[in-house]
């Protein structure tokens, strides 16, 4: 679609007789018109009806694009965790590139890697991770804004140096992959932690509590406190698809808590597309 035709259609969004039909036609064209929407947004008054409808259309199209790409990512096995997290960020920050996130994670990796030695004890490895992430680089658990949508947007987690249990755990998991450390996510109810899968001596790490170590018996106690029956998945590593699903679930809940039902609905639609995995 050329810019002239696009402008002509957008001008009709102010006409109540045809606005719905025009909006549906524009959405039917697909995410390819997102650059046109971004280019034209500032030509309309911030509080004007056309501007509001264009912003709503932009959000829907971004959601459509992410829905398709995340589904394809999951269909392909979801091996690249960072790509899955980046796609979620695209819902709000479409100009964020995957390459920029890879570059930032690589900078963090190098800060850790220079301190590593061969055959290090797992406790020493974890100490390096904890010290580098929380002391040297200044990452913090986002206790004050625990339910903020920003905690689920990985570009913001990296730039603001704060996040939720699952997003901070993702920093550790991604570093562990590059460092060949057997550290994986564990999908506990109401809490996301990591498993250091040492043969014969596995233990768990609560990244949100700045790398606190705990053990299977502690999960047993936690489940008793929650009045939950033990299940195998509460102790074992989860998949990257399950991690991304957890992040999306948190994001939907954050939008619910902040009174943004349209955005919550868009995220729930994406979640439905991942349910078969």
UniProtKB/TrEMBL annotation:
Q: Which residues form the Protein SirB1 N-terminal domain?
A: 101-248
Superkingdom of this protein's organism: Bacteria
- Short name of one Pfam family: Transglut_core2
Family statement drawn from the similarity comment of this UniProt entry: Belongs to the UPF0162 family.
> In its UniProt entry, what is this protein called?
Protein SirB1 N-terminal domain-containing protein
Please name the source species: Leadbetterella byssophila (strain DSM 17132 / JCM 16389 / KACC 11308 / NBRC 106382 / 4M15)
